[in-house]
Amino acid sequence: MKKEFSINVISTACGVMPHTIRMWEKRYQIFTPKRSEGGQRLYSEVDLDKAKIIVSLKEQGHTISSLARHSLQDLRSLLEVNNRADSESEKMFTSIETKKLLKHLEKFDIDLVVSGMQHLRLSMGVKEFIFKIVLPVMHEIEKLSLKGTYSITQEHIISTIVRDQLNQINLANEGPNTKRFALATPDGNLHELPIMIAEIICHANRVSTNYLGASHPAECLGEAVNAIKCKTIVMGVISSAQWNYEKNIVKYLESIDKCLRNKVEIILGGGYKIDLPNFKNIENVKFVSSFEDFDKMLKEIK
User: Fold this and answer.
1) Do 204 and 171 form a contact (C-beta atoms < 8 A)?
2) Tell me, what's the pLDDT at 271?
3) What beta strand segments (E) does 138-292 contain?
4) Does the residue 172 lie in any domain?
5) What does the mean pLDDT of the chain come to?
6) Is 80 inside a domain boundary?
């Protein structure tokens, strides 16, 4: 049996008012709904899909009159082309802005790097700033530093500027401790920037946090987690010259497990899957390889 929907269902699904849907039907013949015995409009699944796509295309600048005569397949094809163009445009924007910042850094024009980064932070959404500017810039400077194109000093300069910009992002952080994520890195792991970024992504997804900072001895981190009674620890575990993930993570988790008094879940940011022993209080370990995956995971939690 084919599904049929009332005008209120179409309205809610698409985010447009019922009178707008009636206008599309009357003026542009986009829909030809059946009628119930009581005279109520009954829309098909095709009508629902068309309405959703039309709303998306309108937001991209198309007019209703230009879309009215298109079939569902034509609308889907048009949306796919537009989304592909938007993706290419976003990639180009990211590339241009990244090159500008790195060009200033190359010349040690620190004030220009700061003002450029600040302008981008203030003119974009938080996630957009993270994913289109901060992460591409940091990935590029890391790659170029390894090649010797940029010095360690220049890498430290851009890291400091990014850290300062992140500290100026102020999102709400409310919620009981038991539902908060504790953010930290293991003893000897001094990479604090990733957990700073992770905290902002948490707040952008309305997940509250307790930020504990970098390089915690297992016993101390366990004591803190017991005290604040959180059930999830997000741990930055990217390897460096001072700290090796594969060599150190199992021993560290075993040590912290002995100190915990409550069941917790641990999310290893930047970690990859390895064989783990059975733990007493660590009831689950998740491996998250990228900030994009972390963001997706938080959306699913919500």
Assistant:
1) yes
2) 87
3) 181-186, 209-216, 232-236, 264-269, 282-288
4) no
5) 88
6) no
